[in-house]
């Protein structure tokens, strides 16, 4: 795996593919090799080949959630929501009580404007995974503004020490311009899960908006010292080929830019919906 990563970073595609193929012959149940080979084919635009890799990988590693998610995303890209639904449904049948699979299904429906179906799926997800912080955090963002306080209280009753829920509540205080409370809850999130870079990005973004230079420097310094390695958005940036060996400070700042673009896109979507209903 490490040898293939080196070749990927050097841009030696043929050697990377050869090493992955050799590795899979020796270790067919090592899911990371299947993921890397599928991602290689996706980077090259060989989507059918990537699908074949993920399918084969799942025969050897049927309980690998990352492979199921990769195949679901690829099917949505290639063949639309229907195929992605089928993949994610099969994944949930083979891997019960997995919040990541439920969340992926909910997000797929939301991406295609199916709010009602997403709400139904979320309700089922919380029944099957009642103590999942990532599901409760996502559910807070899905309900209308006036209902978010109630939903937050429900989430805290189920998992009051989960960093995802704490961060979701912090964002509500942030949105309501309750600066002191927002900062307190964001700090709780990074204390509970210092290895998740997404929370450090939220903290830093918050301080850029509402803090002073000293607090901004403090967050940046502690984040770099902590060396976070996980987080959905953090890993998407830190593991990108072009960001290989980038320092933590650079990854953090790139993530801040990405979060800003997400917010702009979300606001544009809200505006379009308002215009639609107005006419």
Give an overview of the whole structure.
The chain has 279 residues and is mostly helical. Helix content is 79%, strand content 0%. It has helices spanning 2-10, 13-26, 31-43, 47-60, 65-79, 81-94, 99-111, 115-128, 133-142, 148-158, 163-175, 179-192, 197-210, 213-226, 232-238, 248-278. The termini are far apart. The model has no long low-confidence stretch (mean pLDDT 94).
The total count of strands amounts to 0
On the 0 to 100 scale, the average pLDDT is: 94
Helix content: over 70%
Helix run count? 16
Helix-strand string: HHHHHHHHHHHHHHHH
Shape: globular
Structural class: mainly alpha
Q: What is the makeup of the main sheet?
A: none
Rg for CA atoms: 20 Å
- Sheet-strand content, in percent, reads under 5%
End-to-end distance, in Å? 55 Å
Ranges where pLDDT stays below 50 over 5 or more residues in a row are none
Topology overview:
Layout: H1 2-10, H2 13-26, H3 31-43, H4 47-60, H5 65-79, H6 81-94, H7 99-111, H8 115-128, H9 133-142, H10 148-158, H11 163-175, H12 179-192, H13 197-210, H14 213-226, H15 232-238, H16 248-278
Helix pairs in contact: 1-2, 2-3, 3-4, 4-5, 5-6, 5-7, 6-7, 7-8, 8-9, 9-10, 9-11, 10-11, 11-12, 12-13, 13-14, 13-16, 15-16
Task: Explain briefly what this protein structure is.
The chain is mainly α and 279 residues long.
